[in-house]
Design a protein that fits this description.
The chain has 274 residues and is of the alpha+beta class. The protein has four helices and eight strands; from the N terminus they run αβαβββββββαα. Strands 2-4-5-7-6 form a five-stranded mixed β-barrel. α1 (6-52) packs antiparallel against α3 (212-240). Residues 245-249 have low confidence and may be disordered.
Amino acid sequence: MTTPSLASRILRVVGIVALALAVSAVAVRAGFWQLGRHEARSAAITLYEANAATDPVPLAEAVPAGSAVGDAEWTRVTVDGEFEQGSTTLLRNRPVDRERTWHVLAWFDTDDGRSLLVDAGWVPIPDSGEPDGAVPNLPTGDVTLEVVLRAAEEDDGRRDDGATRITPAQMPAPDVEPIDGYGMVQQVCTASGCEDALGSQVPLPTLSLGPHLAYTWQWFAFAVIAPVAGVLLARREWQATSGDDAPAGAPREPREPRRRRRAEPTDEEIEDAL
Protein backbone atom coordinates (compact mmCIF):
# COMPACT_ATOMS: atom_id res chain seq x y z
CA MET A 1 0.00 0.00 0.00
CA THR A 2 1.47 3.36 -1.02
CA THR A 3 1.71 6.30 1.38
CA PRO A 4 0.04 9.60 0.27
CA SER A 5 2.46 12.32 -0.71
CA LEU A 6 3.21 15.16 1.71
CA ALA A 7 1.33 17.67 -0.49
CA SER A 8 -1.75 15.44 -0.57
CA ARG A 9 -1.70 15.03 3.19
CA ILE A 10 -1.40 18.78 3.76
CA LEU A 11 -4.24 19.46 1.31
CA ARG A 12 -6.57 17.03 3.09
CA VAL A 13 -5.77 18.44 6.52
CA VAL A 14 -6.24 22.02 5.34
CA GLY A 15 -9.57 21.03 3.75
CA ILE A 16 -10.84 19.56 7.03
CA VAL A 17 -9.87 22.68 8.99
CA ALA A 18 -11.38 24.99 6.33
CA LEU A 19 -14.66 23.06 6.39
CA ALA A 20 -14.79 23.28 10.19
CA LEU A 21 -14.23 27.04 10.05
CA ALA A 22 -16.96 27.43 7.43
CA VAL A 23 -19.41 25.48 9.61
CA SER A 24 -18.43 27.68 12.56
CA ALA A 25 -19.08 30.85 10.54
CA VAL A 26 -22.54 29.60 9.52
CA ALA A 27 -23.32 28.76 13.15
CA VAL A 28 -22.29 32.26 14.27
CA ARG A 29 -24.54 33.81 11.63
CA ALA A 30 -27.46 31.60 12.69
CA GLY A 31 -26.83 32.50 16.33
CA PHE A 32 -27.01 36.23 15.65
CA TRP A 33 -30.18 35.69 13.58
CA GLN A 34 -31.85 33.91 16.51
CA LEU A 35 -30.59 36.65 18.86
CA GLY A 36 -32.21 39.27 16.62
CA ARG A 37 -35.52 37.41 16.74
CA HIS A 38 -35.29 37.23 20.54
CA GLU A 39 -34.63 40.96 20.80
CA ALA A 40 -37.55 41.73 18.45
CA ARG A 41 -39.89 39.58 20.55
CA SER A 42 -38.64 41.22 23.74
CA ALA A 43 -39.20 44.71 22.30
CA ALA A 44 -42.72 43.73 21.18
CA ILE A 45 -43.61 42.45 24.65
CA THR A 46 -42.22 45.60 26.29
CA LEU A 47 -44.27 47.75 23.90
CA TYR A 48 -47.38 45.62 24.49
CA GLU A 49 -47.11 45.90 28.28
CA ALA A 50 -46.48 49.65 28.17
CA ASN A 51 -49.31 50.51 25.75
CA ALA A 52 -51.91 47.98 26.89
CA ALA A 53 -51.76 49.31 30.46
CA THR A 54 -52.89 52.80 29.44
CA ASP A 55 -56.49 54.02 29.25
CA PRO A 56 -58.00 54.49 25.78
CA VAL A 57 -56.93 57.70 24.04
CA PRO A 58 -58.29 59.37 20.89
CA LEU A 59 -56.94 57.91 17.65
CA ALA A 60 -55.64 61.30 16.52
CA GLU A 61 -53.52 61.52 19.69
CA ALA A 62 -51.98 58.06 19.28
CA VAL A 63 -51.56 58.23 15.48
CA PRO A 64 -51.46 61.81 14.14
CA ALA A 65 -52.46 62.47 10.54
CA GLY A 66 -49.85 61.22 8.08
CA SER A 67 -48.31 58.79 10.60
CA ALA A 68 -48.24 55.00 10.74
CA VAL A 69 -49.21 53.00 13.82
CA GLY A 70 -45.52 52.30 14.56
CA ASP A 71 -44.74 52.58 18.28
CA ALA A 72 -48.46 53.09 19.02
CA GLU A 73 -49.05 49.38 18.40
CA TRP A 74 -51.14 47.76 21.17
CA THR A 75 -52.48 51.15 22.25
CA ARG A 76 -56.18 51.25 23.07
CA VAL A 77 -57.86 54.11 21.23
CA THR A 78 -61.33 55.46 20.63
CA VAL A 79 -62.37 56.69 17.22
CA ASP A 80 -65.57 58.27 15.90
CA GLY A 81 -66.83 57.91 12.34
CA GLU A 82 -68.81 55.63 10.06
CA PHE A 83 -68.33 52.19 8.54
CA GLU A 84 -67.94 52.16 4.76
CA GLN A 85 -70.95 50.18 3.62
CA GLY A 86 -70.03 47.49 1.12
CA SER A 87 -66.43 47.21 2.31
CA THR A 88 -66.97 44.00 4.31
CA THR A 89 -64.30 41.42 3.51
CA LEU A 90 -64.08 37.98 5.11
CA LEU A 91 -60.75 36.60 6.29
CA ARG A 92 -61.36 32.88 6.08
CA ASN A 93 -58.12 31.24 7.20
CA ARG A 94 -57.55 32.42 10.77
CA PRO A 95 -59.19 30.07 13.30
CA VAL A 96 -60.08 31.10 16.86
CA ASP A 97 -59.54 28.47 19.57
CA ARG A 98 -59.23 25.87 16.78
CA GLU A 99 -62.67 26.77 15.43
CA ARG A 100 -63.08 27.58 11.75
CA THR A 101 -64.11 31.19 11.54
CA TRP A 102 -64.58 34.19 9.34
CA HIS A 103 -63.06 37.45 10.53
CA VAL A 104 -65.16 40.46 9.54
CA LEU A 105 -62.84 43.10 8.05
CA ALA A 106 -64.10 46.53 7.02
CA TRP A 107 -63.03 50.14 6.47
CA PHE A 108 -63.99 52.69 9.12
CA ASP A 109 -63.96 56.33 7.96
CA THR A 110 -62.90 58.53 10.87
CA ASP A 111 -64.14 62.02 11.62
CA ASP A 112 -60.65 63.44 10.95
CA GLY A 113 -60.78 62.40 7.29
CA ARG A 114 -58.90 59.08 7.36
CA SER A 115 -59.89 55.45 7.00
CA LEU A 116 -58.91 52.70 9.46
CA LEU A 117 -59.00 49.03 8.55
CA VAL A 118 -60.63 47.12 11.42
CA ASP A 119 -61.03 43.49 12.39
CA ALA A 120 -64.57 43.96 13.68
CA GLY A 121 -65.14 40.44 15.06
CA TRP A 122 -65.49 36.81 14.06
CA VAL A 123 -68.30 34.37 13.30
CA PRO A 124 -68.18 30.56 12.99
CA ILE A 125 -68.28 29.28 9.43
CA PRO A 126 -71.73 27.72 8.88
CA ASP A 127 -72.14 24.24 7.43
CA SER A 128 -73.52 25.78 4.26
CA GLY A 129 -70.33 27.75 3.76
CA GLU A 130 -72.38 30.76 2.73
CA PRO A 131 -72.10 34.13 4.50
CA ASP A 132 -75.75 35.08 4.02
CA GLY A 133 -77.39 35.27 7.45
CA ALA A 134 -74.13 34.35 9.23
CA VAL A 135 -72.20 37.59 8.84
CA PRO A 136 -73.61 40.66 10.63
CA ASN A 137 -74.24 43.83 8.66
CA LEU A 138 -72.09 46.87 9.30
CA PRO A 139 -73.81 49.46 11.54
CA THR A 140 -74.93 52.60 9.74
CA GLY A 141 -74.67 56.19 10.89
CA ASP A 142 -72.38 57.57 13.56
CA VAL A 143 -70.35 54.91 15.38
CA THR A 144 -67.75 55.06 18.15
CA LEU A 145 -65.19 52.26 18.23
CA GLU A 146 -62.70 51.22 20.87
CA VAL A 147 -59.88 49.33 19.18
CA VAL A 148 -56.41 48.00 19.89
CA LEU A 149 -54.01 49.30 17.26
CA ARG A 150 -51.85 46.85 15.36
CA ALA A 151 -49.09 47.37 12.82
CA ALA A 152 -50.00 46.35 9.27
CA GLU A 153 -49.37 42.70 8.46
CA GLU A 154 -47.03 41.84 5.61
CA ASP A 155 -48.86 40.97 2.43
CA ASP A 156 -48.28 37.33 1.43
CA GLY A 157 -49.97 37.75 -1.95
CA ARG A 158 -52.97 35.52 -1.19
CA ARG A 159 -56.42 36.82 -2.01
CA ASP A 160 -60.11 35.98 -1.63
CA ASP A 161 -60.76 32.54 -0.09
CA GLY A 162 -57.02 31.88 0.30
CA ALA A 163 -56.22 35.13 2.13
CA THR A 164 -54.37 34.73 5.44
CA ARG A 165 -53.26 38.29 6.30
CA ILE A 166 -55.03 41.42 7.47
CA THR A 167 -53.75 43.80 4.82
CA PRO A 168 -55.29 46.64 2.79
CA ALA A 169 -54.11 44.86 -0.38
CA GLN A 170 -56.98 42.36 -0.17
CA MET A 171 -59.58 45.03 0.64
CA PRO A 172 -61.51 47.30 -1.72
CA ALA A 173 -59.92 50.74 -1.92
CA PRO A 174 -61.23 53.04 0.84
CA ASP A 175 -62.94 56.33 0.07
CA VAL A 176 -60.30 58.38 1.93
CA GLU A 177 -56.62 58.09 2.89
CA PRO A 178 -55.96 54.83 4.77
CA ILE A 179 -53.98 54.64 8.01
CA ASP A 180 -50.90 52.42 7.89
CA GLY A 181 -52.06 49.79 10.38
CA TYR A 182 -55.34 48.33 11.57
CA GLY A 183 -57.48 48.04 14.70
CA MET A 184 -58.85 45.04 16.60
CA VAL A 185 -62.33 46.08 17.71
CA GLN A 186 -62.99 45.84 21.44
CA GLN A 187 -66.29 47.71 21.50
CA VAL A 188 -68.82 49.07 19.01
CA CYS A 189 -71.12 51.84 20.21
CA THR A 190 -74.08 53.14 18.20
CA ALA A 191 -77.16 55.17 19.09
CA SER A 192 -78.85 51.94 20.19
CA GLY A 193 -76.09 50.86 22.59
CA CYS A 194 -72.71 49.16 22.79
CA GLU A 195 -71.54 45.62 22.03
CA ASP A 196 -68.15 43.95 22.16
CA ALA A 197 -67.84 43.36 18.43
CA LEU A 198 -69.69 42.37 15.29
CA GLY A 199 -70.13 38.71 16.11
CA SER A 200 -67.57 37.63 18.73
CA GLN A 201 -64.60 39.69 19.83
CA VAL A 202 -61.26 38.58 18.36
CA PRO A 203 -58.95 37.68 21.27
CA LEU A 204 -55.66 39.49 21.52
CA PRO A 205 -52.66 37.27 20.75
CA THR A 206 -50.52 35.90 23.56
CA LEU A 207 -46.95 37.14 23.30
CA SER A 208 -44.00 35.10 24.52
CA LEU A 209 -40.24 35.22 24.10
CA GLY A 210 -40.19 31.75 22.61
CA PRO A 211 -37.08 29.53 22.40
CA HIS A 212 -34.95 31.96 20.37
CA LEU A 213 -32.47 32.76 23.17
CA ALA A 214 -31.90 29.05 23.83
CA TYR A 215 -31.32 28.50 20.11
CA THR A 216 -28.87 31.41 20.15
CA TRP A 217 -26.66 29.76 22.79
CA GLN A 218 -26.88 26.41 21.02
CA TRP A 219 -25.64 27.92 17.75
CA PHE A 220 -22.82 29.81 19.48
CA ALA A 221 -21.76 26.63 21.31
CA PHE A 222 -21.74 24.78 18.00
CA ALA A 223 -19.61 27.59 16.53
CA VAL A 224 -16.99 26.92 19.22
CA ILE A 225 -17.16 23.13 18.97
CA ALA A 226 -16.82 22.98 15.17
CA PRO A 227 -13.20 24.32 14.95
CA VAL A 228 -12.08 22.15 17.87
CA ALA A 229 -13.59 19.07 16.24
CA GLY A 230 -12.00 20.09 12.94
CA VAL A 231 -8.52 20.33 14.47
CA LEU A 232 -8.91 16.92 16.14
CA LEU A 233 -10.08 15.31 12.90
CA ALA A 234 -7.26 16.94 10.98
CA ARG A 235 -4.73 15.64 13.52
CA ARG A 236 -6.15 12.15 13.30
CA GLU A 237 -6.08 12.33 9.51
CA TRP A 238 -2.43 13.43 9.57
CA GLN A 239 -1.46 10.59 11.87
CA ALA A 240 -3.45 8.03 9.87
CA THR A 241 -1.65 8.96 6.65
CA SER A 242 1.81 9.35 8.16
CA GLY A 243 4.68 7.29 6.75
CA ASP A 244 7.79 7.58 4.60
CA ASP A 245 7.60 10.31 2.01
CA ALA A 246 9.64 8.29 -0.47
CA PRO A 247 8.28 8.04 -4.02
CA ALA A 248 5.74 5.34 -4.67
CA GLY A 249 7.34 2.00 -5.54
CA ALA A 250 10.75 2.88 -4.07
CA PRO A 251 12.23 -0.03 -2.05
CA ARG A 252 12.31 0.50 1.67
CA GLU A 253 15.50 -0.01 3.57
CA PRO A 254 15.36 -3.08 5.77
CA ARG A 255 15.24 -2.34 9.45
CA GLU A 256 18.16 -3.49 11.54
CA PRO A 257 17.13 -6.53 13.56
CA ARG A 258 17.01 -5.95 17.26
CA ARG A 259 19.78 -7.63 19.17
CA ARG A 260 18.84 -10.14 21.76
CA ARG A 261 19.58 -9.00 25.22
CA ARG A 262 22.34 -11.07 26.82
CA ALA A 263 21.09 -13.15 29.69
CA GLU A 264 22.69 -12.68 33.10
CA PRO A 265 25.14 -15.58 34.16
CA THR A 266 23.73 -18.20 36.44
CA ASP A 267 25.18 -19.01 39.90
CA GLU A 268 26.78 -22.21 38.53
CA GLU A 269 28.58 -20.27 35.79
CA ILE A 270 29.94 -17.81 38.36
CA GLU A 271 31.30 -20.70 40.57
CA ASP A 272 32.98 -22.38 37.58
CA ALA A 273 34.66 -19.11 36.71
CA LEU A 274 36.12 -18.87 40.21
